[in-house]
Design goal:
267 residues; alpha/beta; Glycerol-3-phosphate (1)-acyltransferase; 43% helix; globular
Length: 267
């Protein structure tokens, strides 16, 4: 009986893996025409594809709060960061362009897909690159694109919140954007924080294996009240988003040692 259950489980994983591969191929085809579509069509395409991806991965998406409406202009999303899945979860509810580390460009399949849908890539090891990417973010916000950032700058295991860096929030100040804090939480079949989803010190392939090995995963997005950037600086926006997400997830605020002048310049 046990062998039969294990065999069925393996067959299910193989079936889901095949579906995933076919879905990625369809995404690559769609991404080739994506740049030639209007903004509304681009958002629908991205939203549908990401929702399909989550369904294949058996990730059940729920959200609370009020996402920005389609007509709301100059919107920036600031979220905590657990996994590469975060991007697809946010797009499934609120399509946006993302700022991502430059290494993602070289990922198999997903890298090409990310490039084609307008991801903004930043060289995190080069401080001067922040000014370049902030200019692109400001331009995107001005023409009506939503832009999403992960101010922690790296992923966590979902049980803690890291310090929110302020540097990528500067464009919100420059164009008077609304900043929507979004809390992201993954739980397993027992209701505990999922250990299968965090993308920490593993490869993309291993991450996919871990996720596909789960019967299902519950994913919750919590949209906090937007923060109006008018009259605020980037550090005030970072602390505001950090507080809102910590409250939503019932997590303590990250400990931060006194900042030096040089550190503040790099935020």
């Amino acid at each position: 009986m046990k062998n039969e259950i294990n065999t069925n489980s393996r067959l299910i994983q193989v079936f889901r893996s095949v579906r995933l591969l076919l879905h990625i191929v369809s995404g690559l085809v769609q991404s080739a025409i994506y740049p030639h579509l209007g903004q509304a069509a681009q958002r629908r395409m991205a939203q549908n594809w990401c929702a399909g991806l989550l369904a294949i991965l058996c990730i059940r998406l729920h959200y609370r709060g009020t996402p920005p409406s389609a007509g709301t202009q100059r919107v920036m999303l600031a979220a905590n960061h657990v996994s590469w899945v975060d991007v697809h979860a946010l797009i499934a509810v609120c399509p946006a362009r993302f700022v991502a580390k430059a290494e993602i460009r070289d990922w198999p399949l997903f890298g090409w897909l990310s490039r084609n849908v307008g991801t903004l890539f930043i060289e995190r090891t080069k401080r001067r690159d922040t000014a370049r990417i902030n200019e692109h973010i400001g331009d995107a916000l001005t023409i009506g694109d939503r832009v999403a950032v992960f101010p922690e700058g790296t992923t966590s295991d979902g049980t803690l919140l890291r310090h929110f860096h302020a540097s990528l929030l500067q464009p919100a100040v420059m164009v008077a954007a609304l900043v929507y804090p979004v809390a992201i939480r993954y739980t397993d079949t027992t209701g505990e924080i999922s250990k299968a989803v965090p993308y920490v010190k593993i490869s993309l392939l291993e991450s996919l294996r871990q996720i596909l090995s789960q019967p299902w995963i519950d994913l919750e997005l919590i949209f906090a009240d937007p923060i109006n950037s008018s009259g605020k600086n980037r550090r005030e926006l970072a602390r505001g988003a950090e507080h809102a997400i910590a409250d939503a997830l019932s997590l303590p605020l990250p400990h931060k040692t006194p900042e030096k002048a040089a550190d503040l310049q790099g935020e």
